[in-house]
Amino acid sequence: MVAADDPEPKATLALLGRLLGGEAATAPAVGDGAADALAGELGRYLQLHPLYRRIRVHALRAGDAMPVVRALGKALRAVAADDETADEGDDTHCFELELFPGAGQSSAQTGRFLSATAERRRSGAGAVPEEDRWLLQSVTRPGEVSLPRLRWARRNRDRPQTAAHVAFAFDC
Predict the structure, then answer these.
(1) What's the pLDDT tens digit per position in 39-70?
(2) Within-domain flag for 3
(3) Residue 96, domain extent
(4) Overall pTM surpassing 0.85 (yes/no)
(5) pLDDT at 124 (0 to 100)
(6) Per 3-state DSSP, what percentage of the chain is helix, strand, and coil (rounded to 5)?
């Protein structure tokens, strides 16, 4: 259970899930529906704006950020499946994800899923699931410029100061 006045209930729920039985215990069941819904909306945005290759995303009160990251990955796969004629290197999207904690909440638990995934890859202690491997990849642009597929940052503010292409806000 999470307190009704918890400033960031998704982060608390993800932390409780990790403490009670690892990452797979509760967080995926909670986040799968949200990830599917967000992926559908983001996929439509990417289809409506085919020339945008670097998409800035704000996520407010996203907790451990797993639903947001999974939604970005699902949207990428959906757009790639729809556009089979595109060259692999030319037509891939990159994301700039900014995570904002709830009001009065520290940013320490915000984005914990991303930190754990990157840590797992660096340490070699665990395998990264297939659906999450995209976030550790790079994309080559014309001129042999290599960019990360996902660039993310935790912010200490509870509200964005800059504009974004897409914003996800969670209320619980």
Answers:
(1) 999 999 998 998 898 999 999 988 888 999 99
(2) no
(3) 9-82+90-169
(4) no
(5) 64
(6) 40, 20, 40
Mean pLDDT, to the nearest integer, of 2-7? 72
| DSSP letter, residue 159 | S
Of 143, 142, 138, which Cα lies nearest the Cα of 93? 138
Buried b (16+ CB within 10 A) or exposed e, 8-45: bbbbbbbbebbeeeebeebbeebbeebbeebbeebbee
Cβ atoms of 110 and 9 within 8 Å: the answer is: no
List pLDDT tens digits, range 105-159: 766 778 888 888 888 767 666 677 888 888 888 888 888 889 899 999 999 888 8
Backbone angles phi, psi at 94, to 5 degrees: -125, 150
Using CA atoms, how far apart are residues 43 and 51, in angstroms rounded to an integer?
Answer: 14
**Residue keyed to tokens 């439509």:** 44
| Inter-CA distances, 26 with 4, 17, 65, 133, Å | 19, 5, 14, 21
Pair 118, 80: CB distance under 8 Å: no
Does the residue 32 lie in any domain?
yes
In order, the DSSP letters of 18-60 are HHHH-TTSSHHHHHHHHHHHHHHHHHHHHHH-TT--EEEEEEE
Look at the chain and report how many structural domains it folds into: 1
